[in-house]
Amino acid sequence: MHTAHNVDLAPHTTFGVRALCDTLVTVRSTQELAEALESYPEARILGGGSNILCTSDVHGPVIHLRLMGVTKTDTLVTAQAGESWHGLVTWCVERGLGGLENLALIPGTVGAAPMQNIGAYGVEQDACCAGVTVMDRRTRELIRLLPTDCAFGYRTSRFKQEWRNRYVITEVQYRLSNAPDYHVHTEYRDVAEELAARHCSQPSLRDVYEAVVAIRQRKLPDPASIGNAGSFFKNPVVLASQAAALRDVHPQMPTYPQSDGTVKIAAAWLIDQCGWKGYREHDAGVHDRQALVLVNHGTAVGAEILDLANRIQQSVVERFGIPLETEVNVW
Ligand code: FAD
Ligand code: NAP
Q: Which H or E run contains 178?
């Protein structure tokens, strides 16, 4: 266990905003995690920092999870929480194991994936999650949870709700497929178009993986070049009647009917319609190609980005009557 004091978290988060942390404890085993939690049961947990906005200095301890290792038994893959998510996806694709390929190039760690049930291009991690091992912050006991315990939903889970301060995720298991008739997910428009452009009529899981990597590299802002934490807000899901009423007024509004009868609305479109796309104030801004992504052009502080987010939410409510829920974890 390594403890450091007065550490700037800017290099540890993809927003790259300056925030001094009193105490940063790096743990590399579950035993070290248990020792750290014994001293600091309320500590915040830091993975890859790709879904966090620090709005001021961070008072109180932060535990940086660096538990590493990936193993497999047949098609069951077990990955430790500190492993890179994209590294895990690549590892699985290289072994012909299908299930996670649409989730390639999502930044961050394996341990954070169940938190908001990460998803992209029509697939969410719960589609193949087989179990989540957690450490209880109070008892330091390791508990194996089933996916059904975790209440995975659209960019949410129990870990993000009532279990937020109860458990630390230490490892995640995925049941993947090496079956010859494994069905790849290519329904999402960008994926279908990319595969068509590559003349790939019967895509393998590696083809889908490579298509997703190419789309993301082309379309999404790379935190190495410009600070961001991906989508700042969740896409709102509304009643079908509300969506229909809005479409009467805004026929071009993109809507996606859900299996439970509700309708998902593209938040990026709502924000764009309010004139925010490409907006910049000092170094805090809205990405010029993806209005759902707030960016740090260099020296923005977290409070400026949060203030911008608040103003965006207000304007979307005023124009469309839809409250946008923040997806990023605000510290
Ligand atoms: P962190 O940012 O370190 O932490 C996020 C939250 O989880 C914090 O509250 C933290 O305390 C908690 N946490 C982290 N690890 C643990 C643990 N082991 N146990 C308990 N709590 C923990 N997300 C998507 O869903 N789909 C996408 O396509 C996507 N694309 C993105 C693209 C870009 C360019 C960026 C910057 C982000 C994107 N994201 C996406 C968001 C982000 O990558 C994911 O939410 C990711 O899972 C965060 O992982 P992390 O390790 O960086 O978590
Ligand atoms: P996009 O393809 O431009 O689509 C815009 C929005 O419309 C997406 O948010 C998506 O919702 C929705 N959508 C598009 N096609 C859909 C379909 N066939 N069925 C259901 N919903 C559909 O999105 P993008 O910005 O380039 O991102 C591509 C993918 O990466 C998306 O899945 C997105 O969620 C994911 N991503 C997530 C983050 C993050 O931080 N959470 C950041 C970057 C990218 P969904 O978001 O529900 O898919």
A: none
